[in-house]
Amino acid sequence: MEASIHKTAIVGPQVKLGSNVAIGPYSVIDGEVTLGDGVTIGAHCIVEGNTTIGRACQLFTGAVIGSLPQDRKHQKTDRVFLKIGENNVFREYVTVNPGTIEGGGETTIGDNNLFMACAHVAHDCRIGNDCVLANYVGLSGHVTIEDRAVIGGLSGVHQYGRVGYLSMIGGCSKVNQDVPPFSLVDGNPASLRGLNIVGLKRAELPLPSQRALHSAFKILFNSGLNRSHAILQVKEQLNGLPEVHQLLEFIQASKRGIS
């Protein structure tokens, strides 16, 4: 099925359109842009640069996708990219920037993510699958968001920060250190409040895994042991489960410290 393009929209000569693409009034699609099958773009949107948007993504009014990175070191002649997977939703006035040469040249977004109104994804971010960024969330450059993470509205994540798998960040949080997988953090600055119990249940994590994570969190964050001794104790007692191994790997790889 051919694309449906409103008569007031502008589509540049280099743009590649999949089947059944819809482009709304006054939107501008220009540059080396590729839109996958079934992509829907609302009114007054802009998609530009070296941007690929996967199948069945939706852009709502005013979204700006692929505009130049907000980094003074970036030059207009730099060849950088934004790669977006399938079935993502970008609500009103969401902004997403491509990578920078310094950061590897690429911003990547996986599948099935929801970006609520006015959220911002800066240069060189890496976002996994099934994540939710609520209204006015701001990701600084080089941030990594692992699968199934949820970030509450009006929160900000510091440059090079990491947000772990199946974690949840409360609204209005200032995240200046890494957020462990399976955790709940909140506050300014954000601090660990415990396991993301609701998230674990919704994810239908097996009960033995939930219990093991509860024990691991108690040893790591509430035992009074220093970090290296706590990690060693968790390895000795609980390291048989993949979720515990995932938690320990994340903590040991942290460069900014743990919230």
Commentary on this structure:
With 259 residues, this protein is of the alpha/beta class. The protein folds into two domains: 4-145, 3 Solenoid (UDP N-Acetylglucosamine Acyltransferase, domain 1); 202-252, no CATH class. Helix content is 17%, strand content 27%. It has four helices and 28 strands. The chain has helices at 197-202, 207-222, 227-238, 242-252, and strands at residues 4-5, 10-11, 16-17, 22-23, 28-29, 34-35, 40-41, 46-47, 50-53, 58-59, 64-65, 81-84, 89-90, 95-96, 106-109, 114-115, 120-121, 126-127, 132-133, 138-139, 144-145, 150-151, 156-157, 162-163, 168-169, 174-175, 183-187, 190-195. The strands form three sheets. The chain has an eleven-stranded mixed sheet. A nine-stranded parallel sheet has the order 2-5-8-11-14-17-20-23-26, with no helix packed on it. Strand 27 (183-187) and strand 28 (190-195) form a beta hairpin. Helix 2 (207-222) runs antiparallel to helix 3 (227-238) and helix 2 packs parallel to helix 4. It is elongated. The mean pLDDT is 97.
Radius of gyration: 20 Å
Between the first and last Cα atoms, what is the distance in angstroms?
A: 49 Å
Q: Which shape, going by the Cα principal axes?
A: elongated
Task: Name the CATH homologous superfamily of the largest domain.
Answer: Hexapeptide repeat proteins
Low-pLDDT runs: none
Structural class: alpha/beta
Give me the side-by-side strand order of the main sheet. 1-4-7-10-13-16-19-22-25-27-28
CATH topology of the largest domain: UDP N-Acetylglucosamine Acyltransferase, domain 1
Percent of sequence in beta strands? 25-35%
- Report the total helices: 4
Indicate the CATH architecture of the largest domain.
3 Solenoid
Mean pLDDT: 97
Annotation, overall tally of beta strands: 28
Give the proportion of residues in helices. Answer: 10-25%
Total number of domains: 2
Largest beta-sheet characterization: 11 strands, mixed
Give the C-level CATH assignment of the largest domain.
Answer: Mainly Beta
